[in-house]
Write a structure and sequence with these properties.
Four copies of one chain form a homotetramer.
Chain A (H helix, E strand, L loop, with lengths): L2 H6 L6 H8 L4 E11 L5 E10 L5 E4 L1 E4 L6 H13 L15 E6 L7 E2 L5 E9 L10 E7 L1 H4 L2 H4 L6 H12 L2
Parallel strand pairs in A: 1-7, 5-6
Antiparallel strand pairs in A: 1-2, 1-4, 2-3, 2-8, 5-7
Protein name (chains A, B, C, D): ADP-ribose pyrophosphatase
Organism (chains A, B, C, D): Modestobacter caceresii
Pfam family, one (chains A, B, C, D): DUF4916
Chain lengths: ~180, ~180, ~180, ~180
């Protein structure tokens, strides 16, 4: 949920109009936790992006972005996965639309564990197994795979912005790993 | 998802601004299926509203409405339940934020089973046990309780607008009744 | 949940001991609904087995079977999928252990929509995308793929035994198709 | 999942027969995380039992127990809640049968995070809001309510046996608190 992401998918709105909408309406997002699974479907690693934020700081991030007007949630998920992981990542978006949780990003810190200074965003969160080769694209500098153990390290979790460490831990709990 | 509902909760936007946003962004909604449960938690009946739409036609409907800027999804659910069922309904909103499904209402019919001529709305759907006395409010003319068997009758399902019969059947399947 | 299935995976128990346990304890099962998905993850078809039951009748069935002592639920799912669909089916068992529902098969008809004359079985139900080539094995005579529309046909649903038509409809509702 | 619990609900089996079954079959359990919610449905506290185990040690525990032959999962949940929390606890068992996760307790430590030296048990896990007065019964010595923050304390989590601290953290993640 970095500045850079949303610049790229402003869709049918000019930046100015989008800014106006952001002060008035909750904006619909998707969050994806990319995972590698073994042939039994057990999660062996979790992918985190390294991203340069608009504040110049480099942060870890999940795959995340806005749902556009007249776009299916499923298509938005695939678009953001391809944008961040490249066209050969082969993401396996789950067949059912039920998210494992929702994340409510508030412009005011502390209302929920999630925070986005630019807007009130409500995100549908999915775990997405990725089978192909990942090559970070655009503003994503790097994709790194961590084992479920590594990814729980407090120092690593601290590198995630906007409360996404909370969402990552929710995903791991849902996966039972 | 009638015209009347959304007029009432236009929130921080003028009607004109809301109309503009509706042509540009997916709008976040909640849908609630009100149920009565017995002391084992088994669903004994499902509540449907009778509503006068802006086209003058009377239709059955689920409890449904927009999430406002800076409003929690949980608070939006409670606000719409109270608006439609009255202040003594005692709804038991589920403690976990995971919806049982999402419904994607498209302005173009046929993209999904859900259709809303006014807008692209994405709705988080919940089953909500209701323990108190329900008294329809505002544009809701009546609330009627049906058994899970009655509510599956094709003639009754046909009275639901916008594809909400599909969502109702999804709720019943999720409940296992 | 045919006689034939369970004979094959009686595991550590003699047939006689298993019969005794079946009169005393709920038996843990898994049910899998095999699906084909397109590259967006949308379900395009649902697979049903044709099986010869111990009563000599041929019936449609989901992939279904017992969880053995000291076996992971995930491994049981894969074992039954491989047993029924063959070794090249490439099933994608979901990474999270949460079933989309549970099915309670009672020896007495009418307690739930699910019925198994031999036993009280409780089944964890999953939707499993299958990517490879399926070749029915052992007592499964055939695997047929149906579109989500075809599979809802009352004549087809009537060919499923033990209330599995109910479980199939629950799966379709969960998938939103 | 203490020795004492299962002695009480041995059901239709003699202790000896149950011991034999436990060496041969996975045993079906339910786990309940009792919670208090405010009038918005937000979890304000989580209840943990204090129980004397067969080894003489006092341990914290979730509400947990076996599903009997010919018993609905829902009835088993209510029976164990009443047994542990007393007849005036007014548990609100969720209307849908989908558990938020399953816990696989293995007799061999390390296969999963869950361990039960006596048996292979597979448990369906639910969060259950409790509205009435709780009075611990039978082998439950005490019920203590903790805030979601308190319950995450490592010293408290360490008092839970059999890996139930893992299940408790999964419940908190599912609840988004």
């Amino acid at each position: 949920m970095t500045e850079a992401t949303t610049k790229n998918d402003a869709g049918w709105l000019s930046g100015e109009e989008m800014d106006a909408a952001r002060e008035r309406l909750p904006i619909l997002y998707v969050d994806a936790v990319p995972v590698r699974v073994d042939d039994q479907g057990v999660v062996t690693s979790v992918g985190l992006l390294l991203r340069a934020g608009s504040d110049g700081l480099v942060k870890r991030a999940l795959v995340s972005g806005r749902v556009l007007y007249h776009e299916r949630v499923r298509s938005a998920l695939l678009r953001h996965l391809e944008k961040d992981l490249g066209p050969l990542a082969l993401p396996r978006v789950p067949p059912a639309p039920q998210p494992f949780t929702i994340a409510e990003y508030f412009p005011t810190p502390g209302v929920t564990p999630f925070h986005d200074p630019r807007q009130h965003a409500v995100s549908l969160a999915y775990v997405v197994p990725v089978e192909g080769d990942c090559a970070p694209q655009q503003d994503a500098l790097e994709l790194t795979w961590f084992t479920p153990q590594e990814v729980r390290e407090p120092t690593l979790l601290a590198e995630l912005a906007n409360g996404q460490s909370h969402l990552l831990l929710q995903a791991l709990a849902h996966l039972g790993v």
